[in-house]
Amino acid sequence: MEADIVVAGAGHNSLITACYLAKAGFSTVLLDARSIPGGGAATEELLDPGFLIDTCSTGHTLIRSNPLLLNDELGLIGKYGLKYFEPDPVAHVAFPDGKQFTMYLDFEKTIEEIARFSKKDAAAYRRMSKEYDTVKSIFTAANFTPVGFGPSLDQRLAEHPQGKIWARRRAMSAWDIIKLEFEDKHIQAFMLWMAFQTFVWYDQPGTGMLAYSIFARQARSWSIPEGGSGRLTAGLVGFLEEHGGKVICDKVVSNLIIEDGRCVGVKTSDGDEYRAKKAVLSTVHIKHLIDMAPKELWPEEFHFGVETYNVGISGFAAYFTTKSPPVFDTELGPRSAVSAGAVGWPEDMLQLSLDIKLGRHITNVPWILVATPTLVDPNRAPNGGHTVKFLSAQSFALPAGSAGWDVVKHEVVDRQLAYLRQFMPSFTDDIIISRYVKSPEDIWATNRHMINGAFHGGDRGPAFSGPNRPVPGWASHRMPIPGLYQTGGTTHPGGSITGAPGRNAAIVMLQDLGVDTAGILS
């Protein structure tokens, strides 16, 4: 098969790039190893019929600031029916001493809730929000600009009156910011719970802005698509097919086709070839991409960059279909939230970070997300039922002598249930209809891009961000082999459902293909 653009992988970022290319008139074909497109933006009947479960991403807050949706550049909202809920409460979290905290879309209600623990912290939250409002457009613009295609974040901050202050803040760790700004350990713990939503080490330098990520949720909550995360994918596939593009699933890309030093297509594991007249786009993990072409075609610095690339923190997931939702018992009455969970004290979170770095198996529950999208989207489940997902961090390897993940993963979930039932006692076995558990091994097995079960594309510390992502010198989506481009979570600005790598890659490719982007990116 031949097309102008051949795409290896059909995650949401490569779909976005392909859609913009198709809008410009290029023929496109996308190949994906899974049986459905979307990568981490997928909704499946994983358990019982009619229960629609987000098997990876659920929250889409970050993509809401993408011009793709702000300006509805592909008609995903106006034509293809993509709609977002903004749940209220935004979040609810329980602490080890039994106290609990609820965050609301109403800013003043959130301030009041913080003030229950510390009036000083409530004032700090108000001040931080105002301060962040003055620079959030700068950080957003930097994320949605390909590296080298506009002012860098440092250059943008240099022109801001408070730029030097923000340069320091972003160079600090999220924990540095949190302990500087807040005094109450409950509020510190809640801020760490929020900061860890993207599975990045919150205590490493260069993560300071994670402490401010809460203000995106303050504005738009933990945005979730009506019908599930896969609705984003469905809209993109719909646009692509209407413009002549094609998505072919169950196709594992095994090799790049190189002729005269240029990438001209891909070969799949079943022996089929897909030829590209213009370019090849990859969303294959950079650790795998380098093995798909002869070693000598990649420069030495590229080999080193890939070898040292940190794939990130391994995830652990448990999915439930239930008769009723999790309900947290609090001193102020029952609470439920689409985005809820529990968190340990700051010292527990710092220990979690160290344990992950050292590869220690996590035997307690220092951080857990409990996602119940059916609280605002009841059509995801039949007969008044619910879908519930537990998400946590875990080591990839098990201690010597362990029974293996097939056994241990159920022990992990049983511990999580026992811990959470201190706060949500009505979430008993008799209301659980079915459950399905994914260890880090299982996550990797179901999506080869998620190496070691890490589903956020890799670490986003300074060594792996901006001009260093995925490899220093190769951060502008162009790969060392002519004709080959890269997008997805391993490229700027990183993983999560942002659509930024996809739109950024489209800007680069359209320019290289001689297309005026003014009529395409609008």
Detailed description of the structure:
The chain is an alpha/beta fold and 522 residues long. The protein is built from 17 helices and 20 strands. Strand 1 (2-8), helix 1 (12-23) and strand 2 form a beta-alpha-beta unit. Helix 1 (12-23) packs parallel to helix 17 (500-512).
Quick synopsis:
The protein has helices at 12-23, 67-70, 107-115, 119-133, 136-143, 153-158, 163-171, 174-181, 185-195, 214-220, 230-242, 286-289, 300-307, 346-358, 405-420, 440-446, 500-512; strands spanning 2-8, 28-31, 43-44, 53-54, 84-85, 91-94, 100-103, 224-225, 246-248, 253-259, 262-268, 273-282, 315-322, 328-330, 333-335, 339-343, 367-371, 386-393, 432-438, 484-486.
Our count of domains comes out at: 2
Termini gap: 31 Å
Low-confidence stretches: none
* Percentage beta strand: 15-25%
> Helix proportion of residues, in percent?
25-40%
Gyration radius over CA: 22 Å
Q: Decide which structural class fits the backbone.
A: alpha/beta
- Name of the level-1 CATH class of the largest domain: Alpha Beta
Q: Which descriptor suits the 3D outline?
A: globular
> At CATH's second level, what is the architecture of the largest domain?
Alpha-Beta Complex
The major β-sheet equals: 7 strands, mixed
Number of helices: 17
Average pLDDT confidence is 96
Q: How many strands?
A: 20
